Amino acid sequence: MLTLSRPDLRRVLAAAAAAVFVIAGAFIAFAMPDRADAEANAATVAQQVPTGELTEVTDFGENPSNIQMYIYVPENVAPNPAIVVGVHWCTGSGPDFFNGTEYRYLADELGFIVVYPSVTRESKCWDVASPEALTRDGGSDPVGIKSMVDWTVENYDADTERIFATGASSGGMMTNVLLANYPDVFEAGAAFAGVPYTCFATDNGSEWNNDCSSGNIDRTPEEWGDAVRANNPDYTGPWPRMQTWHGTQDTVLAYPNFNEQIEQWTNVHGFTQTPENTDYPQEGWTRTFYGDAEEYGVVEAISVETDHNVLTAGMADYVMEFFGLTGAE
């Protein structure tokens, strides 16, 4: 498998101009752990995978759409580790997201586990449109991803209060869906070039919604928030925090979807759409904060002067800070 140092990867990502990140990598077959090592672990472990390698896991649980699970467990995995679910873009795969983003290096530094779901359907896009996908436990891809999380919690005694999702493009859309379907599972998400939950909904079997992708669906904050609440009518716990990123010149998933996501997640949390604060972390970035969280914010939105390829080198550090995994100030 091709491996890059973190500085080398930063240079590769910063120079990339393609519509997606695709770096070839060999698939690594799932392997059973050494039984003695597993039994020596402080946690009660059913099965584990090799550390420091991207590994495919099979038979991880309910999986109605036959997606694949890849996992990266760092050699210095923390006790009761956090889990980050990294969701790839259209035409991509779990190994592509592993190779093309910085989360594996951050996992090495910080000791969390990364789960990389991978689509098997021909389009290599996530189902964020069907009624099944947009319903809690309704079927399709979100159910399989939830099973991956459950498998990882069981096998690594992971911290159920530190489970996060992040993704780009189709993966950014799926991040919105995962948080809306499973607010009791995900503590926070970071969506790059995504759209609000239910924006992409179709009822004709199509995977694509032109009205949403073009930014022509404009609902009120309450309507967006009601969609999430209706999916979880009996839920009384805290709602996931959301960090959303979008390029001002995005022509694939148009920039108005950025504001619609802000409206959805601020309304879910009961906030107005007036920022509590605004700053400019880097040239061409405008970051707005919503809500009154003391440390990492509740809803955070970063507008970047770029196109659809908004996820570039260094941004994962801001994701880690928002998730609360770095201890950053």
Automatic annotation (TrEMBL):
* Transmembrane is among the record's keywords: yes
Per the UniProt entry, the signal peptide is none
Lineage per the UniProt record: Bacteria, Bacillati, Actinomycetota, Actinomycetes, Glycomycetales
Species source reads: Glycomyces buryatensis
Q: Which UniProt keywords apply?
A: Hydrolase, Membrane, Signal, Transmembrane, Transmembrane helix
Give the residue spans that cross the bilayer: 12-32
Query: Which PANTHER family did the record assign?
Result: FERULOYL ESTERASE, UNNAMED PRODUCT-RELATED
* Protein's recorded name: PHB depolymerase family esterase
Gene Ontology cellular component annotations, sorted alphabetically: extracellular region
One matching Pfam family? Esterase_PHB
Q: Which GO terms describe its molecular function?
A: hydrolase activity
